[in-house]
Write a structure and sequence with these properties.
The protein has a domain at 2-58. It is built from 4 helices and no strands. The chain has helices at residues 2-19, 36-48, 63-68, 76-164. Helix 1 crosses helix 2. The chain is rod-shaped and about 155 Å long. 2% of the residues are buried.
């Protein structure tokens, strides 16, 4: 009933304000903070007018029947507990899957980090072996070249000795 009076006071005030907009400026304070003389005036005006009905029952059904009508019981299990339990289970499942995925990533990263120095050592060893093999081949070629040069020098000495010994 209190809401109805406040609503009717506000409606009355709005009616008074809209009719007197052209003649006087709107009050600076809202109706609930109006000076005591205005509150008394608003109260007497609201009592003289019928209250605004928010919702009235349909004339087809008597009020007693509406009052005795039972509301359907609130099924808290289906409306609150069930969805909460489902979401909690989904959260737990998600956390488990996420944990498994994170563990996989950590293990793969660890395996990679542990194998990396070994692989780098293997690659470096292969590269060094190739360099050593190339160096040994170069030395063999240089040895062959040195032998040919030595043979050439021996032939030249022999040729000079034959020319000078004439």
């Amino acid at each position: 009933m209190h809401v109805t009076q406040d609503s009717s006071i506000a409606a009355t005030k709005n009616d008074n304000d809209s009719s007197s907009l052209a003649s006087s400026p709107a009050p600076a304070t809202p109706p609930m903070y109006a000076p005591p003389s205005n509150q008394l005036q608003l109260a007497t005006e609201s009592l003289s007018k019928p209250p605004i009905a928010i919702s009235q029952p349909t004339p087809e059904r008597p009020i007693a029947e509406i009052i005795e009508e039972r509301f359907p019981p609130f099924d808290h299990q289906a409306e609150v507990v069930g969805p909460f339990t489902e979401e909690s289970e989904k959260d737990i499942t998600f956390e488990q899957e996420l944990g498994a995925m994170l563990l996989d990533v950590i293990l793969e990263t660890h395996a990679w980090a542990a194998a990396r120095p070994k692989r780098e050592s293997e690659v470096a060893a292969e590269r060094l072996e190739q360099d050593i093999t190339a160096l040994m081949e170069t030395e063999k070629e240089q040895e062959k070249t040195r032998e040919r040069l030595t043979q050439f020098i021996v032939r030249m000495k022999t040729a000079l000795a034959a020319l000078t010994g004439l």
